[in-house]
Amino acid sequence: MLDIKTGPKGDTIKVDSRWLRDHCRCSKCYNARTKQRLFNLVDMPKDLKAKDLKYTKDDSFLEITWHDGHVSEYQIDFIVSSQHDRFLEKLEKDTTRTLWDVPTIEKNKSQLYFKLGDLSTSDAMVKDLMGSLYRYGLVFITDVPATTTMTEMAVRRVFPLMKTLYGEMFTFAQDYLHDDITYSHDYIGPHTDHTYFCDGAGLQALHCVLHTGEGGENFFIDGLQVAKELRRRNPKAFDILSTVHVPAEFFDKEECHRFSSPTIRVDPVTNEIVQFRLNLYDRSVFDTIPQTEMCGFYESMREFLSIVHEPQHWWQLKMNPGTVVIFDNWRLLHGRCAYTGQRAMTGCFVQRTDFLSKARLAGIIE
């Protein structure tokens, strides 16, 4: 470990020598144009030692000469800002997401609606949509002609599409094109899609292009708000749902997908919730834990679902032709009431990595 001076008052931080050597930004170790490392860790000496440390440019830079003769130069600000404690400080100050219940989302729903014409002519409006989508987990695009083609055009204005077993764009009604409850008149409870995929879609877009009957209201629940409440009421239940892998599967004549993951996926570094995988319909044979642990799991799931179904978390609305909803499939639980008559929905999915990439380029997240 090296003591690195960080300011005029003589403050220091301890930094590992190997970390410093790994983060050398000289032209031999780093391609500044592509932002890619060239240094191979296997070439790092086992007995790595700093032979000489020299502070330059009013102590804002550090030059290290290593015992093998290699010279590295670092900005002090870069070293300081790259430390783990600074990373955690940024997370604690993060205000880019708003957890919501029904009163909160109703109060702020004016931030969720965007006209297709405005999005088509304004990059600033697209950025605003991205900001609202990341903050609340869903947005609506209005004035969209009720066709698959126009729905696709509206979504592509913001995101590239994800190809799945349904293709890039899909349309479903009550005809069973795939063996899935989606193709029915039935009530569909709160869930996330693609629990059986290794990498479920990050976003989903839906557009009701036809409905001649009654019912069919959609509802959305903020999983982050529900999980926060579960963590407060029953920390043990939260821990169980964030560690026990639940198997899921989808299969028909041409497809067979299986995957298992915790219901609540938590980042092991930040302890933040990063994804919900909840779909009671697509569960496979539950064989990932011993029978002696089943009681704890089922009790934890029951408590989680009871919070999900509390009225203050359940935002229900009628989706009519002309309005596309885009929502965060890793964050929100969604579902549908039973309906009568003819009803057709068209939509698509967006990969999580594409969603976050767009958000970073727009300056919404780092």
Automatic annotation (TrEMBL):
<feature type="domain" description="TauD/TfdA-like">
    <location>
        <begin position="114"/>
        <end position="348"/>
    </location>
</feature>
<comment type="function">
    <text>Converts trimethyllysine (TML) into hydroxytrimethyllysine (HTML).</text>
</comment>
<dbReference type="InterPro" id="IPR042098">
    <property type="entry name" value="TauD-like_sf"/>
</dbReference>
<keyword id="KW-0408">Iron</keyword>
<dbReference type="InterPro" id="IPR003819">
    <property type="entry name" value="TauD/TfdA-like"/>
</dbReference>
<dbReference type="GO" id="GO:0045329">
    <property type="term" value="P:carnitine biosynthetic process"/>
</dbReference>
<dbReference type="GO" id="GO:0005739">
    <property type="term" value="C:mitochondrion"/>
</dbReference>
<comment type="pathway">
    <text>Amine and polyamine biosynthesis; carnitine biosynthesis.</text>
</comment>
<keyword id="KW-0479">Metal-binding</keyword>
<keyword id="KW-0223">Dioxygenase</keyword>
<dbReference type="InterPro" id="IPR038492">
    <property type="entry name" value="GBBH-like_N_sf"/>
</dbReference>
<protein>
    <recommendedName>
        <fullName>Trimethyllysine dioxygenase, mitochondrial</fullName>
        <ecNumber>1.14.11.8</ecNumber>
    </recommendedName>
</protein>
<comment type="similarity">
    <text>Belongs to the gamma-BBH/TMLD family.</text>
</comment>
<dbReference type="Pfam" id="PF06155">
    <property type="entry name" value="GBBH-like_N"/>
</dbReference>
<dbReference type="Pfam" id="PF02668">
    <property type="entry name" value="TauD"/>
</dbReference>
<dbReference type="InterPro" id="IPR012776">
    <property type="entry name" value="Trimethyllysine_dOase"/>
</dbReference>
<dbReference type="GO" id="GO:0005506">
    <property type="term" value="F:iron ion binding"/>
</dbReference>
<feature type="domain" description="Gamma-butyrobetaine hydroxylase-like N-terminal">
    <location>
        <begin position="10"/>
        <end position="77"/>
    </location>
</feature>
<dbReference type="GO" id="GO:0050353">
    <property type="term" value="F:trimethyllysine dioxygenase activity"/>
</dbReference>
<dbReference type="InterPro" id="IPR050411">
    <property type="entry name" value="AlphaKG_dependent_hydroxylases"/>
</dbReference>
<keyword id="KW-0560">Oxidoreductase</keyword>
<keyword id="KW-0124">Carnitine biosynthesis</keyword>
<dbReference type="InterPro" id="IPR010376">
    <property type="entry name" value="GBBH-like_N"/>
</dbReference>
